[in-house]
Structure formats: C-alpha cells, structure tokens
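Loading example: each entry is read as two labelled lines plus one structure line.
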Amino acid sequence: MKGSQVGLVGRRVCSGLWARHWTHVLTAGTMAIALFVFGALMLAQENLQSLLTGWGDQIQINTYLDKGLGAGEVSLLRDKIQSFPEVERVRHISREQAWKDFRVALGAHSNVLEGLPEDVLPASFEIFVKPAYRDGPIVEALANRLRKEKGLATVEYPQEWVDRLSLLVLALQWAKWVLGGILFIAVFFIVRSTVGLAILAQKDEIEVMQLVGATEELIQAPFVVEGLIQGFIGAGLSVLGLWFLVLFLRDQTLTSIGLFGSLGQLQFIDWRSIALILALGSLLGASGSVFSLRRFMKRWKG
Amino acid sequence: MIQFLHVSKIYAPNTVALKDINLQIAEGELVFLAGPSGAGKTTLLKLLFREEEPSNGQIIIHGKDVTKLNSRGVARLRQKMGLVFQEFKFLPHMTALDNVALAALVTGVPRQESYTKAYQLLRDLGLREKYDAKPPALSGGEQQRVAIARALMNDPMVVLADEPTGNLDANLADETMLLFGKIRERGTTIIIASHNLDLSQRYGTRVISLQEGCLVDDLSPLKEGGSR
C-alpha cells in the first residue's frame, strides 16, 4: 500500500470512528466485559498458582501437640524430630504464641476473638524440611513417620493442600478457556453484526470506491483497523477493570485474615497475560470485521 | 481496441439482457449505444467495467480478456477507465475536489499531486469557484462536470458514460457533449449509452443500436453503406 493509500485508510478510519462512536463504544464495552471475565479467571488462576508455589517452596509440616504434654516431653519430642535427616529445623509454637500470632493475623478483626479462652489453640511444631528433601513423596513419608510418634495429635503438610488446590487451578484454567471461549464467540458475532451495520451504512461509499478502482484491500482495511482499535480499547478497559478489582480486593477481608497476607499481596496479572488479553481483544475485533466484510463483499462483488 | 466476441448476458432465471454481441470499437472512437430502456445498453457498459460478468463470450480491452480478471485485475481495469453515471455516484459528505481527487488517491498517487490535478481539472471544466462545494449544493450541470473531472483523473484509455445527459437541459447536454468531444481529441475512447439519438446525429458519431439485447444496427458516418 502506498503512502497516499495509507493516508486514505487513516482518514476513513478516523471518520468511521467519529461517525459511529456510540456503536464503537458499545461494542468495545461488550468486549471489555467478556475480556474482564476471562481476565478475572486468569487473575484467580495466577494468584492461586503463586500461592501454591509459595506453599510448595516452603514445604513445612505442622504438627499439633497432645494437650497433656509437659515441657520436658515437648523438648524431648522436638529433639527427636530435629534428629530426622530430612528435617532442617523445628520451631515450637506454644499455645500463648499461637494465640498471639492468630490475633496479629486477624488485625483489625481480632475483636472477634473476644470472650474466647486464650488456650483454645493447640501448641504445635513447625517442621522445616531441608531443600534436598522438598519432594512430594519424601515429605509424605516423613509426615507418615511423624503420625506414628506419640504426643503428636495431628500432622499436616501443605503439599496435601497443594495437590488438592492444584485441581482447583486446573479447573480455573479450563473454566477460563471454556467460559472465555463462549464469551468470545458471542462477542465475535456482536462485532460481526456491528461491522455489518457499518458496512451497510457505507454501502454507497464502498460502491463509489469500487467504481473508481479501489482494491478490495483498500476498501476493507479501514473496517479491519476500526475493529482492531475497538478490540484493543475493549481489552484495555478490561485490564483497567481488573486493576481496580485487585485494588478493591487488596483492601478486603482476604488480606486481613492473612490468606494472602502471609504469602505476599494479591498479585496483578503479569505482562504476558496483559499482552494476551490485548492481543485477544484486537484479534476478536479484527476477525469480526474480516468475516463480516467477506460476507458483504461477496454479496456486492463487482 | 475493444472487442466483444459472442457476448451474451442472461440474468436468472431466463432474462436475456444481451444476446451474442459481436463488435469492435477502435481506439479514440466516440460511440453512442442507442436503444430503448431495457435494450441492454447499461448491461453492455457494466460488462466493460466488470460490474457484471458475461454468461458467454469474451470481452477484450487492449488485448486483455476482462472476463478472466480477478478482483485486483478488476480494480486495475477500472483505474484505467473513467466512469460517468446518470446519477453521478458521488460521496455527498465530501467536497467536489475530494470526490475528484479520490479517483487518484485510490491508485496511490500522492495526495498533493492528486489534489493539484483535481483542482486543475475542475478549473478547466469551469468549476474554479465550486471546488469546495459538496455535490448536493451543485446544479445538475455542475455535478455532471464534476463527474467528468473524476472520470478524467487517471488519464483513462476509455470513458464510459451511462445517460450522461439524461438529467440535463438541452444547453447543458450540448455543453457536456462538447466536453466529450474534447476528451476524444486526446485519443480517449468514449462510449456513451443514451436514448437521445438527437445528440448522436448532431455530433455525427457512430451509433450502435440495441434492441431486446440484440445488436440491430451499427451505423458509422465513416462506414460504407451506413444509412447516414
């Protein structure tokens, strides 16, 4: 395409965007909603994934102690566990300490604990596994060995949760593409219809351009560029919406009860995901235009 | 040279618009296509600029069979043609100058060059004061001249005009015909579809008569045995 033709396309794009700005706003808004849903699922998936990675990296086993254990027994048990080759260190958390930690984790909401006895939480050991042994089956074997120890009421390790929550991540990943796919198909048809209306509105202009010798590419390019811009703006709006969602959620209870607080803040989607949303939006807009054009141009072929 | 070789056009289901047309038009000729409404004049023009495809036969323009062109080829063919329609076919929101320049812009001629030439053509056609007006604000004769200016933008080898004087009074029709005469002097082939035989007789041009899709007469002032 030559310079003057590019200029012609540019001018037609600007006049098209201006002439049908409400149609473009509505279509971009629809795309933004669809991409927002897709992005929100992506956001949930990424955060859950990083949460699991954080837990998995720590590979820490929690053991809750029997209530009747004396200080000497606790010390002996601690030394025994410390002697296991897989164990890096053992941290004893007394009932008082557990209560304090829980109050701190609840932050502004700690008043919900008013009236509860301070020894309601059990004492526990936090067992840190040496990096060389941070592997699912090894940790599981260690946990099973610990379960046989007298004085330990419960043994929990995050890998169990990691495994269970991994399924949730997988479900989110599928939901993202299935739900996203359905929404994208709906948006595709909406874009196709709006571009179809725009083409019909410009039928005379297209006819004149055909008659003076404009190539199909030159006639179609402005519609494709308009669709692309529309999709990009819709995607940009959805990213902006996600950003506000993250800001909103960071202020909410999830953070205050420490679910994410202990493992870092709720994270915004990374630049690759942003690029994916922007690319998907642009592609949706452009492809909707292309398919609509193909349908109409075939009908009007000179 | 334009050649029609056994060209027929049948619209579905059985409407015959043109039937086995054979004719030749030399370079630089001014030809009238005559005949009543529905005779096939417009269809013949549409076949020439490939708005329609023939059902049978070949149409050769300057050695190229236009029936075999792809969409890009059709665009290139139209870039070498000037088209003038009875209903003008302008973009009403654009000025006369924009409408004329558009014909060159779509071919990739730089903007400055396109607009300079468009202005010159409008000036030559007596529209120096009206170049900035939008088509609906122009009179029928002025619009006709804008259409002719647009048709001449790309120095066409052929100008096709469908009832170019249909909306004009006698004086403006004469003026338009004089313009076509001037364009012909440049060596451009001009084919005019018109039911106004009076004009063709007055300007002594070749007249190809069509009736119900058939070529019934081909009268040339130069042709031996012609009735003129």
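Residues 60-156 of chain A form a domain with the Alpha-Beta Plaits fold (CATH 3.30.70.3040).
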